[in-house]
Design brief:
Helix content: 40-55%
Structural class: mainly alpha
Strand order of the largest sheet: 1-2
Largest sheet: 2 strands, antiparallel
Order of helices and strands: HHHEEHHHEEEEHHEE
Number of helices: 8
Strand content: 5-15%
Radius of gyration: 21 Å
Distance between the termini: 32 Å
Length: 234
């Protein structure tokens, strides 16, 4: 699933591969949607199959499209945000040691990493009504590209915003967007990151960046993550 999901969203690099992966995922979900239509299961596909609004039901194609979106969203962002958190802690060993010694610091470390290096830099929104924004007039239907990374580094909201600091006062960020279109997987993503970090801290004693390897870095114009995190432990 993860391979197909990453291949599908890499459409700007290899269109043919993305289309093949999308078709493979679509065929799998088409079969599940048809199999579970009318069933009493509590799984997502069964619930969507039973859903009704004013006598209208979702088609199998609509269910497949929705599930394909959820699968790729879940496969892509959380491993990146977890990697960014680990990068932040590894490059600030005193903060890593604090989290290792006091796991109650993990939630605020997760939030700081999401603010400091969100896994997704931009989201699209559509203006619902005319509004003035920083000297520009937006009209209904206009597309707005929101820079999450820039917003999360707003110096009027966070002091020394460029610095990774898990001890800073907690102020809400928009790594998961905001409002009615806030990320559907927000709670799952936080839980997954907690599980990952606890497992790493439990199993890899004295985890640190490999001093003999090339220094790690975070990169990406849309999705952000380190290409690699060379470490040593034990």
């Amino acid at each position: 699933f993860h391979r197909l999901a990453v291949e599908m969203i890499s459409v700007s690099f290899d269109m043919d591969l993305a289309l093949r992966s999308s078709a493979e995922l679509g065929a799998w979900f088409d079969g599940l949607a048809a199999e579970r239509r009318g069933g009493e299961g509590r799984d997502l596909i069964s619930v969507l199959g039973r859903a009704e609004l004013d006598g209208q039901h979702l088609t199998d194609q609509e269910i497949t499209a929705f599930c394909r979106l959820l699968l790729t969203a879940g496969a892509e962002t959380t491993y990146r945000s977890s990697s960014n958190l680990l990068f932040g802690l590894l490059t600030h060993p005193e903060q890593l040691e604090a989290v290792r010694n006091d796991r109650s610091l993990l939630p605020q470390a997760i939030e700081e990493a999401l603010r400091w290096e969100p896994p997704l830099l931009t989201i699209l929104r559509t203006a619902a009504e005319e509004v003035e924004l920083v000297g520009q007039t937006l009209h209904p239907g206009d597309t707005v590209i929101v820079n999450i990374g820039g917003a999360n580094h707003d110096e009027t909201r966070w002091e020394d915003a460029e610095t990774f600091d898990i001890f800073r006062p907690q102020v809400p960020h928009i790594a998961f967007a905001s409002g009615v279109h806030m990320c559907l997987g927000i709670h799952l993503a936080r839980m997954e990151t907690m599980v990952v970090m606890n497992a790493i801290l439990d199993r890899l004693p004295d985890l640190r960046i490999d001093p003999d390897a090339e220094a790690p870095y975070i990169t990406g114009m849309i999705f952000r993550a380190p290409p690699a995190l060379p470490v040593v432990f034990g």
